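> example.struct
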């Protein structure tokens, strides 16, 4: 049954109340449905799913949230360097669910200045330049958008990478002015994600069939070989402990 959206009647919990709930620890035992139901009841419409459209996790959460409430919101960071397959998936989602997808773009003047000073493919030159590109194309648009929300949902999972092993299901994200951050499938395995995709016929990025477990920006993603870590194809020229774009900087906190 879809939850009714009554934005004007929603009394969102204070940060102190959320902190108390987190402190009691019980939310870590809630399953994804229960976390999303709680989040929609308390924060919608100032709640949105952050989905890359390049990983099945975000699509699973989109499907769950849409079934709980068809007016639930989803956004994608369109960096200007996404793969064509990712844009195709955005269109498929619009058709499949009849759902709007909010596309967030970087500031044109920031991108112009960056490529004028450092070139269009600066990310291969150094870790600093790669992080600069991620900051301008991803983190700043994300920060701008989160400033309009009270809570957001991500598809982070603990076993994706060493940088994500301490991911909590619910936290206060101080890197974005204390917004509530929800990682409802933090304890899922990759197999569980794909089981959900198959069972519910969830649309996913077609590049997953070509050796890409996750699809980021086109120049920063490659297919992986059998047996490689599932994040090995992202910024493959860097060491595993630097492989974050800055969106989820809280390391063990997320
Ligand atoms: S993933 Fe690559 S192209 Fe995309 S924002 Fe980061 S450095 Fe830039």
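> example.seq
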């Amino acid at each position: 049954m879809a939850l009714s959206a009554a934005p004007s009647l929603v009394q969102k919990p204070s940060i102190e109340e959320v902190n108390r709930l987190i402190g009691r620890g019980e939310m870590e035992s809630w399953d994804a449905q229960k976390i999303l139901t709680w989040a929609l009841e308390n924060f919608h419409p100032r709640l949105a799913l952050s989905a890359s459209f390049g990983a099945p996790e975000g699509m699973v959460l989109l499907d769950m949230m849409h079934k709980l409430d068809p007016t639930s919101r989803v956004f994608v960071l369109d960096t200007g360097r996404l793969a064509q397959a990712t844009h195709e998936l955005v269109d498929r989602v619009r058709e499949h669910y009849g759902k709007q997808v909010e596309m967030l773009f970087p500031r044109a003047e920031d991108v112009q200045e960056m490529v004028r000073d450092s070139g269009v493919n600066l990310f291969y030159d150094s870790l600093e330049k790669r992080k600069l590109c991620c900051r301008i194309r991803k983190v700043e648009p994300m920060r701008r958008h989160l400033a309009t929300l009270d809570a957001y949902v991500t598809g982070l999972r603990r076993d994706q990478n060493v940088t994500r092993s301490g991911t909590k299901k619910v936290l206060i994200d101080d890197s974005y002015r204390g917004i509530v951050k929800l990682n409802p499938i933090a304890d899922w395995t990759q197999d569980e994600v794909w089981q959900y995709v198959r069972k519910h016929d969830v649309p996913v990025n077609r590049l997953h069939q070509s050796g890409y477990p996750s699809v980021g920006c086109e120049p920063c993603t490659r297919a992986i070989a059998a047996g490689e870590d599932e994040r090995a194809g992202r910024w493959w020229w860097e060491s595993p402990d630097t492989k974050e774009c800055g969106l989820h900087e809280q390391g063990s906190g997320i």
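> remarks
The two ends are 30 Å apart (CA to CA).
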